[in-house]
Each structure stands twice: as C-alpha cells, then as structure tokens.
C-alpha cells in the first residue's frame, strides 16, 4: 500500500517526498520534532505534544508554521491517508530553506514542515513488553539544552547503536555525578528499594517527556508513592523494577542494566500495571 508524506503544504507519495538541499534542518540540524502515538486512528497526549512543540519552536525562535487547529487537521489527514489505526505520526519543523549560513536568514524564510505516519503491530509490541527489555549506560555527552526537542540527535543515535550492538533497546545517559539523566529516546524510571517510583526532575538537562507527564498523573490517581528525584546506576541495578516511557515505548519494563538483572530479571507488577493504566488513559483521551 502506498504511503504519503506531507511536505511544505502538499501530500506526496512517500517515495517521492523530498526537501531542498539547503533546508536548514539538513544543513545545520536547525529544527525541532514531535512524535505522537496513534490509538484507534487518534492522536494520544495531543495537548502535551502541542505544548512542547510550541515551546521548542519558541526557544529556537522558529516561527509557528500554522495554528494548532490547522496542524491538527494536517496530522489527522496524514493518519487517514496512511490508513493508520495503531501507530506513530512524526512532525518535523525546520527554520526553512536559505543559503547556508550559521546565522538566521535575513529576511526570515517560511518554516519547512514534514509529516509522516506509520502503523505499528500493537500485539507484537505487547508481547515484547511482557518479556521486558535491557538497557545499557553511556556517558552524558549531549548539549546543555536537552529540554528542547531538537533534531540534532547524533549523540542519541550513537547511544542507540551502542545499545543495539549489545542486545539492548535503549541507552541511559549518565552524568558526571553518576546519576542517570534519561534515555536516548525515552525517560528513565525505577521502583527503588523502598517501593517508591523515581524519575529525574525536568529542571535537570532532560526532555520534558509528554508520556512521562501523563504517567505522573496516572501514578497520582493510582495513589502510588513517587518522587522526581535522580538515581544512580547502582540504585537502578538494586531497584525492585525499572522502566522507560515515551511515545514509541509507552511504558516498557526494563529487566537489566548493563547486563545486571533488576530483581529476579522478570517484569514486575508495578511496571505492568502502569503500562495498562497509561494505555487506557491514552486511548480514552486521544483526539
């Protein structure tokens, strides 16, 4: 089945989609992105993703390409044209096309917008989540504004590749103090030895995860103890449970860190429960 991409105002066949060679995203990684999970053909956690998108654009002083209402229509059309019921939709906004120069174009040029959507096999994903997954740790080597969801992801790509080569699905960055900041494409969580949920606070150099934010509300409603508090690699290895969160991973249990089993090396009850509660919330609130 043919797939379609949205590129600067037009839907084109995915295989024919292209951007200009002097798009500043291609030349300078001068842009931002967002990824929405799609449940039943609808956008999950939509409000949080839009809020983060506008913030990222504002922090980089990139003009908003269109209103939220208009963008919602285009995102939904991308989902419809690609026949996605369960999947992901990707949005990228760059500063636009201009002669290569590090400084911003003067006068400003229109932002460039790309949207793609693809289906995922939820049944297969659930089966994998039920088994748990592994993570590795790598030194934190990213820039100081990881709160902006920029397309400049080379350290993340290298970390992901290192994880794949070691049979893991994710890499956790570890700062100079030995504290886990976040994953290459997810937020990191543990259930510590005292049974308390812990994840890094967003005042640190981490992305303000939308799935993370929704899950904090789910946790509060479930009455579980939680603290936005950093943890060390050693604390993660000695934790009762661990998991990651993100639009792609949702809530995925982690059963080992750097080859060391967490608990007995099986998926724990808290992560399993939170995954089910999050998916229930996301489906009910999707638009």
Concise account of the structure shown:
With 287 residues, this protein is of the alpha+beta class.
Work out the count of structural domains. 2
CATH class of the largest domain: Alpha Beta
The number of distinct β-strands equals 15
Q: Beta-sheet strand percentage?
A: 25-35%
- State the major sheet: 9 strands, mixed
Catalytic activity: L-valine + 2-oxoglutarate = 3-methyl-2-oxobutanoate + L-glutamate; L-isoleucine + 2-oxoglutarate = (S)-3-methyl-2-oxopentanoate + L-glutamate; L-leucine + 2-oxoglutarate = 4-methyl-2-oxopentanoate + L-glutamate
GO biological process, one term: branched-chain amino acid biosynthetic process
Cofactor: pyridoxal 5'-phosphate
Protein name: Probable branched-chain-amino-acid aminotransferase
């Amino acid at each position: 089945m043919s797939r379609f991409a949205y590129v600067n105002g037009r839907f084109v066949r995915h295989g024919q989609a292209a951007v200009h060679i002097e798009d500043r995203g291609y030349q300078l990684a001068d842009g931002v992105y967002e990824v929405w999970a799609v449940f039943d053909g609808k956008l999950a956690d939509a409000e949080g993703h839009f809020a983060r998108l506008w913030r990222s654009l504002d922090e980089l002083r990139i003009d908003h390409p269109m209103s939220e209402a208009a963008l919602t229509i285009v995102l939904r059309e991308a989902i419809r044209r690609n026949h996605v019921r369960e999947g992901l939709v990707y949005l990228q906004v760059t500063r636009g096309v201009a002669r290569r120069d590090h400084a911003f174009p003067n006068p400003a040029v229109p932002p460039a917008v790309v949207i793609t959507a693809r289906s995922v096999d939820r049944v297969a994903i659930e089966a994998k989540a039920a088994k748990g997954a592994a993570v590795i740790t790598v030194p934190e080597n990213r820039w100081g504004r990881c709160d902006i969801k920029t397309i400049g992801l080379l350290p993340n790509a290298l970390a992901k590749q290192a994880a794949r080569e070691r049979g893991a699905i994710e890499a956790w960055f570890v700062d100079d103090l030995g504290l886990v900041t976040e994953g290459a494409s997810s937020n990191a969580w543990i259930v510590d030895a005292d049974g308390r949920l812990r994840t890094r606070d967003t005042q640190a150099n981490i992305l303000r995860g939308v799935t993370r934010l929704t899950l904090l509300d789910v946790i509060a409603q479930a009455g579980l103890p939680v603290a936005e508090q950093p943890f060390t690699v050693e604390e993660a290895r000695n934790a009762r449970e661990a998991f990651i969160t993100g639009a792609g991973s949702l809530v995925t249990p982690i059963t080992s860190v750097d080859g060391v089993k967490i608990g007995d090396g099986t998926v724990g009850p808290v992560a399993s429960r939170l995954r089910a509660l999050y998916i229930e919330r996301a489906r009910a609130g999707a638009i």
